[in-house]
Amino acid sequence: MTAGIVTDSSCDLGDDELEGLDVEIVPLFIRFGTDEFVDREQINVEDFYRRMATVDELPQTAAPPPGRFEQAFTRFLDAGCEAVLCINLSSAISATMQSAVQAADSVRSQRSDADIRVLDSKSVTAGLGTLVLQAARMATAGDNADTIEAFVADASDRTHVFGTLDTLENLRKGGRIGGAQAMLGSMLSIKPIVDISSGEVEEAAKQRTRRKALGWLRDTLSAAEPVECLTVMHGEAADVGDFCDMLAAVHSGDIRVCKVGPVVGTHAGQGVLGMAYQVPAT
């Protein structure tokens, strides 16, 4: 490959999806009180949600130290790659990209010819994962860094990510809403819908009942059609199959499914269910 692809663990890509692709995933850290875990290495998705359900305080996430990124960059450069592209979750919601930039500067100070490009996906979870898969396939096919970078910049602007929360408990634990507000919202079965398409978390709608929230997502997809690279993402949601069927009624293409990992699951809570897609290039 002429270009190496690096990302972070908020991409929520499964090992099976990465088979045949050379991608370095730099893990974030997850803290439950004084217990710290390396995402993907020391805690998996299933264990994360089981543990989160048993604690009163919200887990915390921490960006990878620059040294982790340095190791990933160096591996590709030592392997003969002409450039390394590091595609990270939105810089508006995490310090992960800042850590990657520091790492790139450090490697360049030691290797003046190192071509390392840190890219802001302006996305997260399935939106980021799709961009990484596309970039990795291009790198495997022999595309150069300029071509891949231009594609990622364009595709990130065409990427949309929406999700509906099944519980308000994590918002309460995180101090984003008060206990009385959370209790009232739960009694009324309020299901917030968030839009992360711009790289920031914005409220898109509020629906009464889970079914109405999923219907809102389906209708949003229908209005955007035709779309590409549709992915359903979920945090151990029991109704993910039903949601896929709802989307299949308005979308004729394939639907990829991925699990929302600890990085986003910490804030969204168990049962979060959403979708990511790209509108076609004009």
Low-confidence stretches: 175-180
Supply the helix-strand structural class: alpha/beta
N- to C-terminal separation? 29 Å
Which strand order does the major sheet show?
A: 10-9-8-13-11-12
Strand content: 15-25%
Instruction: Tell the overall outline.
Output: globular
Mean pLDDT: 92
How many helices? Answer: 10
Oligomer: single chain
Order of secondary-structure elements: EEEEHEHEHEHHEHHEEHEHEHE
Written description of the protein model:
The structure is a single chain. With 282 residues, the protein is α/β, with parallel strands linked by helices. The chain is 39% helix and 24% strand. It has 10 helices and 13 strands. The strands form 3 sheets. A 6-stranded mixed β-sheet has the order 10-9-8-13-11-12, with helices on both faces. Strands 2-1-6-7 form a 4-stranded parallel β-sheet, with helices on both faces. The chain is globular. The model is unreliable at 175-180 (pLDDT under 50).
Chain-wise SSE layout:
Layout: E1 3-8, E2 23-26, E3 29-32, E4 35-38, H1 45-52, E5 60-62, H2 66-78, E6 83-88, H3 96-110, E7 116-120, H4 125-140, H5 145-157, E8 159-164, H6 169-173, H7 179-187, E9 190-195, E10 202-208, H8 210-224, E11 228-234, H9 240-248, E12 256-259, H10 262-268, E13 273-278
Parallel strand pairs: 1-2, 1-6, 6-7, 11-12
Antiparallel strand pairs: 3-4, 3-5, 8-9, 8-13, 9-10, 11-13
Helix pairs in contact: 2-3, 4-5
Descriptive key words:
single chain, alpha/beta, 6-stranded mixed beta sheet, 4-stranded parallel beta sheet, 282 residues
